[in-house]
Amino acid sequence: MVGEPTGAEPGEISARLSKVRRKVIILSGKGGVGKSTVTANLAAALAQRGRSVGVFDYDFHGPAMARMLGASGQLRGIPGGVFPVEGVLGVKVVSMAFLLPDERTPVVWRGPLKLKALRELMSLVIWGELDYLLFDLPPGTGDEALNIAQNIPGLDGAIVVTIPSEVSEVAVEKSAEFCKMLNIPLLGVVENMSYLRCPHCGRIVELFGREAGERISEVEGIPLLAKIPLEPELARCMDRGEPIVLCDPSSEASGAFLDLASRLEEMLPP
Length: 270
Fold this sequence. Notes:
The chain is an alpha/beta fold. The protein contains 10 helices and 12 strands.
């Protein structure tokens, strides 16, 4: 996709978000930590707890929210706006995936075009009343993260996703510093792929390291919101468009995501 979006005025974005109670960005300092998996499952967990939820997939080059949340089709347009596509549990999804002819089509845009696309989409989407709107960002603290911070009014906070490794710890520190520089409240850290529980003996295997989330929490003075286990079924559920709270509700991962949703509700009541 190489066409150029037209952009929009900031006041139009504010008007579209006027009925959204809480706006939270989900970011990671590096790729490969399962940030989108956390976003999708957090959205589903909030919805299962009775909250109205939307997800804006700002990873234009690798949109995954539509598949992970079982949302398919196209954005339905009316004069003056477009409606999100509903996924599982009624989660409203806006993603570049709905604007491409197929999953293999790349988005060949530089930074300024992605900013224009963000503004245009956010000025057109009719979200309606939402308790929570989650923004799934691509890895890092580059153009997309800055665009969201500077163009989405009234961000309530950020959640940083990491894995228990030293490399990821440094990336989290960068993300934390980014939030401080942009005056975005840092709600806490989610340690994904925290451990693997042996299905035969129940022993916990720490694949990447130990207690990285706790160290980050202490150094940055922010809460460790959740430790999500590595479960093979979680990836299979995501490929089918079924969050773990639906396809394996008795699993440890499902419980961890429901606890994370509860923590977010306590910190940011809708």
